[in-house]
Amino acid sequence: MLTSVDTKSRFSRRTLFKTLGLGGAAALMPARSRAAVLPDTGQEMATLLDLNKCIGCGACVDACRDVNASRYPEPKKPFPVMYPSRVKAEDFSDNRHVDNRLTPYNWLFIQSATAEGREVFIPRRCMHCQNPPCANLCPWGAAARQGSGTVAINTDICLGGAKCRDVCPWEIPQRQTGVGLYLDLAPSLGGNGVMFKCDRCSDRVANGKLPACIGACPNGVQEMGPRDVIVAKARDLAKATGGFLYGLEENGGTNTIYLSPVSFEKLNAALMEGKQSGKTGANTSERVEQQGPGRPHLARVADVMAGSNTLAWAVLLAPLAGVASAFLKGTRKLMNTSSPQPAVSDAAARKEERNA
Q1: Pairing assessment for the beta strands 194-196 and 174-176 based on DSSP bridges
Q2: What are 113's strand-pairing partners?
Q3: Are 127 and 254 a contacting pair, CB within 8 Å?
Q4: Which of 153, 193, 328, 349 is the most exposed place for a label (fewest CB within 10 A)?
């Protein structure tokens, strides 16, 4: 029956339910799961990053780290011994200063690639896909797509299984071991931590503020607005400047759209060349790889959710993930109620010390 689906069309679980004659099943899905996989009536927001303007100053990275510092993980050590032993610990807590790749402590970094005789700087973070496989395929319902188009991970209930990273075409989410609900539920059998990534400063946006990276940029590299407006502007700019766009079609469409003076095929080739040689384009003094773990590629990406097997898994998983999410939220609430809360968190204390 799945072979009757037009794989070129935009596809969601609702589309599949309709195709299979199971439209009523969507109404039976738990609320969180519906929110993750079905179109929202609210306005979808997208960001346009004009790489012609980016000078790689890192102001966006610093702003992201400063605003989100209180949300960074504080792991308990030593880490529990994991079974099976192939599940390895991932610990960035002693290297939280690293800002040249994505980590649980760095949700945005500046990538660089040299092509056609010029170095292009590329702020990299979550692409916030329109039909995100991370949200559709998280078995615990911890990842979800919001009505604004933002894709966020609920770190209160994430068990760190890294399914979201496995299915992400750019492998964006990053795991920190020794933190999260798995320590209370199954410290040796759980997913081994919590996954972290950009959520476009959802709390700030909810209060009418811009994401920190956008507000801090001195050159106005990024702008955010309704997706149809942003897409129209991106197309107009590309046509006027002879530029190239990335994010409109990748993985079926994302809410992070790049405009570049150099084709993304050439930029990605430069990233891969840097990976193989250990060079970073023109700036060889730093010798930092530009593509690899925590450093996403810029290749063209097919729609992950368009595959019939993936869709079938998503349909089967949706109600189970909703139930799991409700259970984990209840468990987290119970844990919070039974545990005394410190007056000031460790992260907040360190931030106060830095500001003193």
Answers
A1: antiparallel
A2: 120
A3: yes
A4: 349
Nearest-angstrom CA–CA distance, 252 and 307: 12
* DSSP category for residue 296: -
Q: What are residue 46's DSSP bridge partners? A: 225
Instruction: Look over the chain and give the mean of its residue pLDDT values, rounded to a whole number.
Output: 81
3-state class of 71 per DSSP? helix
Number of DSSP helices (H) and strands (E) in the chain, helices first? 13, 10
Instruction: Using the predicted structure, report yes or no on whether residue 275 has a pLDDT greater than 70.
Output: no
> Strand, coil or helix: what is 253?
coil
How many C-alpha atoms does 207 have within 13 Å on its Cβ side? 6
Cβ density class 207-235: b for 16+ within 10 Å, e for less: eeebbbbbebbeeebbbbeebeebbebbe
Which pTM value belongs to this model? Answer: 0.79
3-state secondary structure of 134: helix
pLDDT score of 110 more than 50 = yes
Cβ atoms < 10 Å from Cβ of 92: 23
Query: Do the Cβ atoms of 35 and 207 come closer than 8 Å?
Result: no
pLDDT of residue 6: 38
Tokens of 106: 């760095």
Strand 143-145 relative to strand 151-153, pairing: antiparallel
N-term to C-term CA, the chain? 64
What residues have CB less than 8 Å from 31, skipping those under 6 apart?
322
Is the distance from CB of 323 to CB of 317 less than 8 angstroms?
no
DSSP readout, 138-197?
-TTS-EEE-TTS-EEE-TTT-----HHHHH-TT---EEESS-STHHHH-TTTS-SSEEE-
Return d(Cα 37, Cα 311) in angstroms, integer: 11
- 112: part of which helix (H) or strand (E)? strand 109-115
Asked if 116 and 139 count as a contact pair (C-beta separation under 8 A), the reply is: no
